[in-house]
Specification:
6-stranded parallel beta sheet, 13% strand, metal-binding, P-loop_NTPase, shikimate kinase activity, ATP-binding, nucleotide-binding
Length: 198
């Protein structure tokens, strides 16, 4: 487990930190984060949306500057959000490739991380024919599978909470699982990775 809970009895309470939501492209991370904002009162922060608001659409960034430039922007954005006390109550959704950047991976080792696990059957309708995700071109289904296999071990390693998003589970069910897991961990649950599945 990466985030350290609970603190020793004689230590000052640790300040609240954002919950970082990781997982593959098209898993539904942003949708889940929005749901948590609406129904559980968290702030919603999405790393890709922050980047787009400042630098323009992501496909254009890739086309004009390349992936490394984008990953540097992404890492800087994630670091900025994590150190901003205004986002302490946020569900913070990051891009599918973000944890593969070493500096981001190191940051996330010190945060409360929830991994939204999905399967190809759930994601396929969301990516079929997609032309807006640079990393999925030119064959979205094949590229998604390749990327997920390459990244899954990293997601699993970083996860304090693993959420079952397979079989098109309703976001309300996944959100309830996430809220229950966050509550357990922040109240001093045993120091083990929380896997929440149907």
């Amino acid at each position: 487990m990466n985030a350290q809970f609970p603190a020793p009895a004689d230590a000052a309470p640790a300040p609240q930190r954002p919950v970082v939501l990781i997982g593959p492209m098209a898993a539904g991370k942003s949708f889940l984060a929005l749901h948590m904002s609406k129904f559980y009162g968290y702030d919603f922060v999405d790393a890709d949306q922050v980047i787009v608001s400042r630098h323009g659409v992501i496909p254009k960034i890739f086309a004009e500057h390349g992936e490394k430039y984008f990953r540097d922007l992404e890492a800087d954005t994630i670091a900025e959000v994590l150190r901003d006390p205004d986002h302490a109550n946020a569900i913070f959704s990051v891009g599918g490739g973000a944890p593969m950047t070493p500096s981001v991976r190191e940051m996330l080792r010190h945060e409360l991380v929830a991994y939204l696990k999905v399967d190809t059957e759930t994601v396929l309708p969301r990516i079929s024919g997609n032309r807006t995700r640079p990393m999925l071109q030119p064959d979205p289904e094949r590229r998604w599978q390749e990327l997920y296999e390459a990244r899954r071990g990293c997601y699993e390693e970083l996860a304090d909470i693993t959420l079952d998003g397979t079989r098109n589970r309703p976001v309300a069910e996944i959100g309830a699982d996430l809220e229950a897991a966050i509550t357990r961990l922040r109240s001093g649950a045993p120091d083990t990775t929380q896997e929440v599945q149907a």
